[in-house]
Amino acid sequence: MNDNKEVSKLNGENYKKFFKKLPTPTYVWRKIEDDLVLIDYNKAADKIVNGKMKEFLGIKASEFYKDRKDILNDLSQCAMGAAIESREILYNYRTTEENKYLYVTYSGIEPDMVFVHTDDITKQKRAEASLKESEEKFRMISDQSLVAISIAQDGVIKYVNKQLAELSGYSTEEMKSWGPGEFLKIIHPDYRELVAEQSQKKSMGLDDVIDKYEFLGIRKSGEFIWIDNYSKTVTYEGRPAVLSIMIDINEKKKAEKKLKESEMKTRQAYNRAEFYKDLFAHDINNILQNLSSAIEINQERLQKLKGTKKIEEINLLMREQVNRGAKLVSNIRKLTQIEEHKFEFQEVEGLSILKNSISFVKKSFRHRDLNIHIDTHLEKFHLYANELLQEIYDNILINAVKYTVDEPVEIQVKITEEIKNDAKLFKLEFIDHGIGIQDNIKEKIFHRSFTEARSVSGMGLGLSLVKMIVSTFKGEIWVENRIENDYEKGSNFIVLLPEVVKK
Question: Which of 131, 236, 294, 463 has the most beta carbons within 10 angstroms of its beta carbon?
Fold first, then answer.
């Protein structure tokens, strides 16, 4: 204590000038014969014993400290010029009838005279005892808790309970040995920034924090585990720290995921049923409409009793439409199998199937003047698909014919090769001179629910089937204007399909 340096300069004659002003309770003992006698004290010392210190003036140390040989020994040694270390003692002043914790320092002024400075640290010691008791209670509760608990300060783990060890897979000793920030190894990389930021803010005692959040953890084994974390700023060893309470919610997350998947499957099943219902109604309606037109023409020919050959051609057309209806039913079954992963894919030759589709469309529109030509340097191109590939060609070509007013109907199918993401693709462009598609509905026409424009009525349903099949083949489809910035000059439907990769 700083008082000692000043006291060491005093002697028996001048000590009182300094002594009386000391804020620390101080007693003056002088060696007389074979004992030490209390000869003086200051106001601070008198205050401790409620003004009763004068009753002890002249008392011998052996009587005053008769039960404390340690204090008597210190006084005796100091009176003989020995340096005595300061120490904490528990002492009863008698006059106050209570035990007090004192921090005692001995100072020898001159031979045979000793100053005893006694700081009352009772409140401090009781606070420490209370804190220790609280810590012991906390540890007892924490160790018996069913949740994981930790205390971290400056990015270093100061305390963990056994539940956190079980949760993380690391022992408590391992976690306590980690350096600053090493605790992040039990946090998934996607959540480390969040956890580190919150930990730093709470360690600094900032207010802008999130007390409760979920994160994905990583056990020592590498297993992922979802954790519900509640953390708060607390005081640990006199400075801010982070108290975290963690609960394993892995099973809860799995249950939520299963429920979500179940809901999604139910929704998909419903949408699929609606899709197939609309698809069937749409295409069957087109087939019946073609049959109806053919019958009317046939009826006119029959009434005139002429055109027998033409009637045979019309009957052939009707037969083809009936076959197409049967094919539609078959394709719906196949689409169901695709969605349920029950359909097999194989290598198909795309150009020959395209030629078959062009032939089919020409037969379906015998009354129209069609000019459909293929523009490519390829003699063949091979895709990983199935017979539904023709459904893509049929729908795009039929739409091109239906929505072209002028004749002859000009349709160009341009086929080129393209590299995307290191994969070889075949790019098919179906370029027509039809009424075109406005820019604001170019994406919508591929949706089953599209019904906005009368000019393209029904197109959305057929193209939604096309998009579904293209996606199944790992391809892409979109539409552009034939002439840039002028949709009324016709459309260009572009399909990208991957090449078969040879093993």
Answer: 463
